[in-house]
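Cross-posting from the chemistry board since nobody answered there.

I work mostly on the small-molecule side, so proteins are not my area. We synthesized NAP and want a rough idea of how it might sit in this target. Sequence and SMILES are below. Is it possible to get a predicted 3D structure of the two together?
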Amino acid sequence: MKLTNRTILITGGSDGIGLAFAAKFASLGNEVIVTGRRQALLDKVKATHPRIHTIQSDVGDPSQIAMLAERVKKAFPRLDVLMNNAGISRYRNLTLESPDLNQLMSEMDINVGGVVRMTSAFIDLLKTNKGTLINVSSALAFVPLPCLPIYCATKAAIHSYTQSLRFQLEDSGVEVVELMPPAVRTVMTSDLADGSIALITTDKLVELSMADLAAGRLEIHLEERSNWRSCDAWRPISSTGSSGRRRSPWCLPARYRPSRVISKPSARRVGRDAGAIGRPRWRPIPPKLKSKKENFHVVEG
Ligand SMILES: NC(=O)c1ccc[n+]([C@@H]2O[C@H](COP(=O)([O-])OP(=O)(O)OC[C@H]3O[C@@H](n4cnc5c(N)ncnc54)[C@H](OP(=O)(O)O)[C@@H]3O)[C@@H](O)[C@H]2O)c1
């Protein structure tokens, strides 16, 4: 991906990972627009980064997406990068009936609905400008963290969706990138117990990701090159804290731990490493699938 002379829209760019990328892209001279729901956060961004444009918009609301698209297309017709970054995570106890069935789907609406709708609303412009789409999924797309069951499912959905999107856009001139961050220190992870998960900083994430983006990688997964203990991040939150393994609705018995879901022989060692999981097996991006495209029909709507 070319990292300069771009016009970049980052959803959820008012804080955390999105803001760190926005600041980096702006420092490289790019035109950067960020969105978020809270105006106060956006105002803070504007105060510290006057070059960054801010627009209040909720990716969970289709009508706000439509308004955003109209506004951005008018004001920034050269827009050629969309980074679908906005996301939320919620601890959920699936064993209890939810008091609010609408609220139960909030992560789906934002993390999946937001990405799908934003992509659709901007796809024409991205095709016209031969742009780049960056979807932020997560390392948790590949191994469920049981305390965040729906969040993990949304990230798995984004991984699958992004692969299909890349295939469909193969001949369009739009490059489709998936960023799968490991655990990163942001508001989203702020209530994780100290030491339960090794977190990297947003700056470190940006530094590592920029190298991969510059190298043209389309699937960016960083766990091998960050200094965090990747295995720990896959475990249920309360299983690795200094106070030892506690029983809680979030802490699954060993037989259900993610380690067994994609276990490999080395994951069955005893002692400190017991329960550690193997790294997800990253499937290579399929080679050119053009020959199969003849049998591939897109149904509109
Ligand atoms: N932190 C991690 O360890 C980690 C790891 C892997 C992947 N990720 C992914 O990285 C992305 C960013 O996470 P983060 O850790 O930076 O989160 P964060 O610190 O909580 O920041 C989230 C940002 O998204 C905005 N946002 C949330 N819901 C939104 C909505 N409906 N519409 C528009 N903006 C919205 C927030 O502002 P408002 O609340 O004001 O809208 C904020 O600017 C997410 O997709 C997350 O799943 C995070």
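Reply from a structural biologist on the board:
Welcome over. Reading the output above for you: The longest helix spans residues 106-128. The pocket of NAP is lined by residues 11-12, 14-18, 35-38, 41, 58-60, 85-88, 110, 114, 136, 138, 181, 183-184, 186-189 (CB under 6 Å). Happy to explain the token format if needed.
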